[in-house]
Amino acid sequence: MTGDTAGARAWRSLRTSLAATRDRLRDATTASPSRFAVGIFLALILLFTALFSLPAASADGRVTPFADALFTAVSTICVTGLSTVNMGTHWSAFGHLIVYIGVNVGAMGVLTLASILGLVISKRLGLRAKLIAAGDTNPLRAHGGPVNEGQAVRLGEVGQLLATVALSTLVIEAGLAVLLYPSLLASGVDPWSALWEAPYYAAMSFTNTGFAPNAEGIAPFAHNYLFLTLLMAGVFLGSIGFPVIFALWRHHFHVRRWSLHAKLTLITTVILFFAGAAVFLLLEYDNPKTFGGMDAWDTTFQAFFLSAMTRSGGFSIVDIGQLHGSSLVVGSMLMFIGGGSASTAGGIKVTTLAVLALAVWSEAKGRPSVQAFGRRIPSDVQRVALSVVAWGSTIVAVSTITIAQITRYPIEYVLFDVVSGFATVGLSTGITQDLPDLAVYVMAATMFMGRVGTVTLAAAVAATSRSQHYSLPVERPIVG
Asked: Which residues span the membrane (predicted)?
C-alpha cells in the first residue's frame, strides 16, 4: 500500500507540474505575442544550427563550421536564400531535407507560428490566440486592443486563415512540383533526381527562398522558359501573402468584395513587376556581361525574371555581380520593398509603400484624410508604415556600414547583399560567400531582424496606442 500511495503521489505531482508548465506556456503565448514569436524563431534557429552542424548533414561527413551552420539555419528559417557555402555540393541528402523542412516551417510567418503553437498548447483557438494570428495579417491586432476599422481578416475568420496557410502551402507546392517535373526532364535531369528536385524547387519558389540543389544553381535552365515561368509563378503566389490568397479563395474574381489590403497588394505588386522589368531592360540591354549577349526575346524575358526575383524570389540566371551599379541600386530598392504582408517574402512590404504613396498623394491634393477604393486609411496605419520604413532603413544602414568597414568591399556590393539579407531575398553579388566570420554574424542578425523585426516593431508601435482623455496644446515645427 505504501508503494502504491507513493507512486500515486508521484503521478499526481507530475501531472500538477505538467499542468503548471502548460499554463505558463499558455500565458506566454498570450501575454506578449511578438516576444513569444521572436522566441520561437530563435529556438528554431538554434535547433537547425545544431542539425546543420551534424556530420551527417554535410556531403563529406565532416562537422560544418559553426558560423556556416548558424548562417544557413538563419537563412533557412528566415527564408532568405543567402549562403556562405555552396548549397548544391556542401550538404548531403539529409542536409537538403533539413533545408526543405526549415523553409516550409519558416515560411508560415512569425505570429502564425506563435498562434499555431499556442493552439497546440491551449488545445483551442480562443480570442487571444485569434488576436495573435490576426497580428500576422495586421500588426495593429497583435496588441489585443480595440481596432474598430475593417481588417484584412476578421477575427471570426482567423481559424479559416490558419487552415488556408497550411492548405495553400501544401496544394500550391504540390501543384508546382507536378508541373516542374516534366520541365526538369526536358532539361536533361534524370528521372530519379527530378523526383526530389521538383518538390525542392517548388518549395524554394513558393517560400521565396531561392536555394538550388545543384552547384550551378538554375543556370542550366536558362532557356527552359516553362521552368523559369513556373518559378516566377511560385514566387508570385508566395509573395502576395496568405490573407490575399484567402481573399481570392473566398471571393474569386468578385473584385468589389476583395479587402482593401488585397487590392493594394495585387495592384502594387503588378506595377512594381512591370516597372522593374522596364528599368532593368533599359539599364542592362547593352551590358555584354548580362543582357547584351542575348537576343531580344531572351533580354525581355530575363528582365521580367530579374524583376520578379528581386522582389524576394532569390533565383538568378545572370551574374548579379556583373550588373551595372545603377541596376544594383534599382535592385536594392525593389528588394527593400519586398512582397505582401503575411507572406513568405520580406522587405517593408508593398502595402507599406502603397499607404505611404497614398499619404503623399493625399497631401499633395490637399485632402484631409488618406483614401483608397472608397475606404479611409486611419492615421495609426500610416504611423506604423512610417515606423517600419524607419526601422528597416536603420537596420540596412547600420549593417552596410559595419560590413563595409570589416571587409572593405565596394559599398554598392555590400549594400545590395545587406538589403538582400534584410528583405530575405537571397540574391548576392558574390561577396556573401567570402565574408569573414564577424561579418557573417552581422549578416545573420540582419536577416533575423528583417524577418521578424518589422512585424515586432509594428506590433509594439500599435501597442502604444492608448485612449487619451485630454489634448495638449498644438505647436507646429517647420518641416521641409
From this structure: 36-54, 97-121, 161-181, 225-249, 261-283, 333-361, 381-401, 438-463
Distance CA 62, CA 264 (A): 49
Per the CB < 8 A criterion, the answer to whether 249 and 164 are in contact is yes
Low-confidence ranges of the chain (pLDDT < 70): 1-4, 7, 14, 17-37, 109-164, 453-470, 479-480
> Containing H/E element for 407?
helix 379-407
- Structural contact between residues 284 and 324, judged by C-beta atoms closer than 8 angstroms: yes
pTM of the model as a whole: 0.83
| Cα dihedral across residues 141, 147, 150, 155: positive or negative | positive
In 3-state terms, what secondary structure has residue 377? strand
Q: What angle do CA 260, 171, 342 make, to 5 degrees?
A: 35
Cell (9 digits) for 51: 542539425
Residue 146 φ/ψ region, left for φ over 0, alpha for ψ in the -120 to 50 degree band, beta for the rest: beta
Residues 6+ apart with CB under 8 A from 57: 51, 64, 91, 92, 94, 95, 98
Indicate the residue type of 24. R
All cell numbers assigned to 163: 487552415
Question: How is 232-299 classified by DSSP, letter by letter?
Answer: HHHHHHHHS-HHHHHHHHHHTT-GGGS-HHHHHHHHHHHHHHHHHHHHHHHHHTT-TTTTTTS-HHHH
> In this predicted model, what pLDDT tens digit does every residue of 205-217 receive, in sequence order?
999 999 998 888 8
Chain segment 256-293, per-residue pLDDT in tens: 888 888 899 999 999 999 999 999 999 999 999 999 88
How far apart, in Å, are the Cα atoms of 316 and each of 8, 51, 135, 304, 313?
63, 28, 33, 11, 9
CB proximity list for 227: less than 8 A, separation 6 or greater:
180, 183, 184, 186, 187, 218, 221
The 3-state secondary structure of 39-70 reads HHHHHHHHHHHHHHHCHHHECCCCCCCHHHHH
**Nearest CA-CA partner of 443 in 464, 414, 472, 468:** 414
SS3 percent helix, strand, coil of the chain, rounded to 5, is: 70, 0, 30
Whole-angstrom Cα distance, residue 185 to residue 244? 33
Q: How far, in Å, are 238, 311, 430 from residue 438 at the CA level?
A: 32, 28, 17
Distances (CA, A) of 227 to 184, 221, 222, 297: 7, 7, 9, 16
Phi and psi of 413, rounded to 5°? -70, -45
C-alpha cell at 413: 556590393
Write phi, then psi, for 84 (nearest 5 degrees).
-100, -5
Q: 124: left (phi > 0), else alpha (psi -120 to 50), else beta?
A: beta
Q: What local confidence, expressed as pLDDT, does residue 20 receive? A: 65
Handedness of CA 314, 335, 273, 433 (dihedral sign): negative
Continuous segment of H or E residues that includes residue 144: none
